[in-house]
Amino acid sequence: MKLPALKTAVKDLSEIDRREFFKAGGAVATVALSSGVTLMAFGGAASANADAGKRWGLLIDVNKCKSDCNACVTACSDENGWEDTGNPETDAQWIRKVDLTHKQTGREVSLPMMCQHCEQPPCVDVCPTGASFKRADGIVLVDKHACIGCRYCMMACPFKARSFVHEPVENQKSHAPRGNGTVESCTLCVHRVDKGGSPACVEACSETGHGAMMFGDLNDPASEISQALKQYSSIGLRDDLRLNPGVRYSNL
What is the pTM of this model? Predict the structure, then answer.
């Protein structure tokens, strides 16, 4: 066989092996799914709904976030079908409350921590299958059909915002696909956003009367969140990494 033909044959063989590998990974990821749940809901279909002219984000005022309030966590759990059993090593943590104390002044604050939906997401950079991806509107998601559970994204995330599903999942929501052996994180309630709504955590925070969380289009200068960011100083967590997160915190 001539060299060009040999190279072509090797390339074709490698592509077959690659396809079979990902097919096997997808099969493993779908074993624990409940009836009516489609993993590809976070793949092509979700991306098709994204508006490239928008960038969805959150502004969180930590002065209004009460340390004894977990309404945002409860709302996310109820909305997306995950449960916190008190074991941070194995539990899903789409959103969690974090308490911070300033070493010099002793000031204490409490804030919700979730996927920061970075403009330059490290989780996407390290994912070998493309399962971690960023929509055109800035929402970072995981395509569970393509996730092989390697957990590189978990190691790359500086915010510890992703969780690995260790056990088979029961009674899950059709709009929030989950699967044993895959990685998951906050989706900004993309199923709500695509219908013109807001994330469940934001609505729950508003219902408590605290109003610590604001959601909106960061690209729209007339939006409430853009106006607030223009008027008040805020920071992104780990701004030194230049990830430009879509979640901003004020009074931190």
Answer: 0.82
